[in-house]
Amino acid sequence: MNDVSENTYLENINKAKTTDELKKIEIELLGRNGVINNLLKKIKDIPPDQKREYGQKVNSLKKKIEEKIEEKKQILKKNSTKSFFDKTLPGKTYPKGSLHPLTYIIEEIAEIFSSLGFIRVSYPEVEWEYFSFEALNMPKGHPARDDFETFFIDFPENKQYGKMVLSPHTSSGQNREMKRTTPPIRMINIAKTYRPNWDTTHTPMFHQFEGLCIDKNINITHLKGTINYFVKKFFGPKRTIRLRPAHFQFTEPSFEIDVSCGVCGGTGEINNKKCKVCKSGWLELAGAGMVHPNVLKAGGIDVNKYSGWAFGFGPERCMMMREEMAIDDIRILYSGDIRFLENF
Length: 344
Ligand code: PHE
Hints:
Layout: H1 3-15, H2 19-30, H3 35-41, H4 48-82, H5 101-114, E1 119-121, E2 126-128, H6 129-132, E3 164-166, H7 172-180, E4 185-194, E5 205-215, H8 220-235, E6 241-248, E7 251-260, E8 269-270, E9 273-274, E10 282-291, H9 293-298, E11 307-313, H10 315-322, H11 338-341
Parallel strand pairs: 1-4
Antiparallel strand pairs: 2-3, 4-5, 5-11, 6-7, 7-10, 8-9, 10-11
The site of phenylalanine has 11 residues, from strand 10 and strand 11.
């Protein structure tokens, strides 16, 4: 008894092609006159101090052989049923995939603006500092840059455009659009944006959509009218907007845009109690304003001839506000959790 013979026994079991063949091997190995029994019989010739070790070896070999035979039996059994193909069985249905919920929202937003003549564009997600900041009236070292916390890419700095970044807002597309084309401009830029935040209301990757309108005699009423149209189409005809003064370096004047709350109807109260969703009747929706002359100039646009406005929204926020989704952690959107995604 040695490793070579052990391997041969196990290999022979493995090679058996039918249950009959296997049965024969089983008798040869485990039968009354089989290999194992013969080995056991020989114990009487083994010196007394080695009997114990010898016995253990034979038993362990026996166990291995038994296990292998059992395993092979199962395999042969399985294979013998496999060849039967029952064509009357019902077919398998495979799970149907769908687009990510936010993709549907983005398509819808693009369509609403397209019906107003806005052209959908896309610009680099991996962008230069220049387009994210300088071109937007935020020179190097300007504190307003801190509002757009930024991921920097490990890449040699460009003399003209500075460091490489992950675009922290879709406003980086403004200068590129002004250089790509000439007024009249009606741009809708929907893209991924990145800022290093990770909590229940922030993911490091999120989306924005940026509207830019540049033409002769463009003023705030056009901005209000456009956003009003979007809000009624997207949130429903009863919803209204309001503009609050704000500050952005690239627009002057600047506004925050609020939309009336759909839960309390903009009153801020339900049955004399504060509305839990909005607390005030209004929900913050977007930043906007008239494009700053420095931004127009950086884009090569004649400020004596043209004026324009811009706005920036978050589609994730729009989606959650419209569907009245009870999401207490926005990170679920990008967790890849199929149980969540299957709801859409
Ligand atoms: N880019 C701004 C932000 O990310 C939003 C904005 C866009 C404000 C366009 C004004 C005009 O917060």
